[in-house]
Design a protein that fits this description.
alpha+beta, single chain, 6-stranded mixed sheet, 240 residues, 12 strands, D-amino Acid Aminotransferase, Chain A, domain 1, 6 helices
Length: 240
């Protein structure tokens, strides 16, 4: 099973008693073959019908401390760029948080999307994994322009799959569908594990972790600011 600690470095979440929910560059930087393939994706998107539309993302609300009551699961807050992958008859497209088409900037990820589905909308984050710690946010912008091969997409939600709108399903059902889809994606497409139990235990378990995203396990997906997704930074144990 892949764990967030593989991206973050540091200790094991399971060792700290936290349950891991597994449900189980711009075009100028592209080599000629990659430019040709990405151009082919764009060409197909213009001639084929049935295209899926970008869905504005759900945005977590900042809080002073994560919820500790039942009914919540927690995910590591990755310091990257919020990104949506759309797969349909038009090929593969990647969009920024604001709906801009960044497929050419993220071309190594676009070329790596070979998932067992006909159509999907996947929510996640593009990061540059740190060598011995958290994702390297300062290196992300440089990697996009100069070394895009370092980019990785970490998927944490799925909104559409093969003609079915999943947004109204409970979060854990969507995570189950997502896990089954990207289970074998060990390279450019990875799965973001969720953790059940105490958020404080997660901070103890993962070295250098600064923030977590807490989500209601039974909640649907709604675009815009949300009180069923909460973002909290690390606080001292005495504050819990």
């Amino acid at each position: 099973m892949r764990r967030c600690s593989q991206l973050l470095g540091g200790g094991s979440a399971q060792a700290a008693g936290v349950q891991v929910g597994g449900c189980r560059a711009a075009c100028a930087g592209q080599p000629p073959l990659a430019r040709s393939k990405v151009a082919s994706l764009s060409k197909r998107s213009k001639v084929n019908g049935g295209r899926l539309e970008f869905i504005p993302p759900q945005i977590p609300t900042r809080v002073e401390r994560p919820p500790e009551d039942e009914g919540w699961v927690h995910e590591v807050k990755l310091d990257g760029y919020r990104t949506q992958i759309i797969i349909d008859k038009g090929g593969v497209r990647l969009y920024s948080k604001n709906g801009r088409d960044w497929t050419t900037k993220y071309w190594p990820i676009a070329l790596a999307v070979e998932l067992p589905c006909r159509a999907a909308i996947i929510d996640g984050e593009v990061i540059v994994p740190g060598e011995q710690g958290p994702p390297d946010c300062p290196a992300l912008e440089a990697a996009i322009w100069n070394e895009p091969s370092r980019l990785v997409f970490v998927a944490f939600d799925i909104l559409h799959l093969d003609g079915r709108n999943l947004a109204s399903l409970p979060l854990l059902q969507r995570k189950q569908a997502l896990w089954q889809l990207v289970e074998h994606g060990l390279g450019k497409i990875q799965y973001s594990e969720h953790f059940e139990g105490s958020a404080l235990a997660i901070f103890r378990a993962i070295e250098k972790l600064e923030s977590v995203i807490s989500k209601r396990a039974d909640s649907g997906y709604r675009s815009g600011p949300s009180n069923t997704w909460l973002k909290a930074r690390y606080v001292e144990e005495a504050d819990f």
